[in-house]
Amino acid sequence: MSRFLDSVSIIISTFCKHAKEDGDQSKLSRRRMKEFIQKEFADAIAVSTIDKILQFLEWDGDGEIDFNEFLLLVFRVAKACYWYLQKG
Fold first, then answer.
1. What is the pTM of this model?
2. Backbone angles phi, psi at 66, to 5 degrees
3. What letter would DSSP give residue 26?
4. Which of 59, 79, 64 is nearest to 33 (CA)?
5. Residue 27: which CATH number?
6. Rounded to whole angstroms, what are the CA distances from 1 to 7, 10, 11, 14?
7. Angle 35-9-87 from CA coordinates, rounded to 5°
8. Contact present, 85 and 43 (Cβ < 8 Å)
9. What are the residue boundaries of the EF-hand domain, all occurrences included (predicted)?
10. CB 36 within 8 A of CB 28
11. pLDDT tens profile 27-62
């Protein structure tokens, strides 16, 4: 598998792994997503901003994060990393 497809597969499996912990492999609870962000981005995101991030991601107001909403986080992180690397 190419590196790109391997990366896509990792994103999908990461979402499914955490969603499965909530019992529904298609959605993450807000609590589970908060735990994920705290764990994965502990060095980069202040705890005080996590609720703002969740509010942005959870745009349909159903209290859960589906895969499309999860991808918003992935895209935003990728863009931030790209901008940072371009400045370096």
1. 0.82
2. -90, 180
3. T
4. 64
5. 1.10.238.10
6. 10, 12, 15, 18
7. 75
8. no
9. 45-80
10. yes
11. 999 899 989 989 988 887 887 888 888 888 877 788
Scan for tokens 């969740």, then name that residue.
54
* Residue whose tokens read 């979402």: 15
Which spans in the chain are helix H? 3-20, 30-40, 47-57, 67-87
Give residues with Cβ within 8 angstroms of 1, minimum separation 6. 9
Encoding tokens for residue 85?
């690397």
**Token pair of 88, please?**
């370096």
- Asked if 54 and 30 touch (Cβ cutoff 8 Å), the reply is yes
Please tell me the total count of domains within the chain: 1
Tokens standing for residue 51:
């609720």
Residue 5: both structure tokens together: 């497809």
